[in-house]
DUF397 domain-containing protein
Amino acid sequence: MMGDTEWIKASASQASGDCVEMRRHDGLIQVRDSKDPDGPILSFPRSPMAAWLDAAGNGEFDVLR
């Protein structure tokens, strides 16, 4: 299993700071709101998160814009 990582966010959102952050922790991918680092954290298994990221990258969710 790969080790834990620090929180990261998309480079495109660095200027505003209003974004989600992600990290790998205990074999899961965790997601939190950068504006509330002490708030709730969502945890997802790696495989479904990878599928979601692939779908987002392929434009499957563009209809929601």
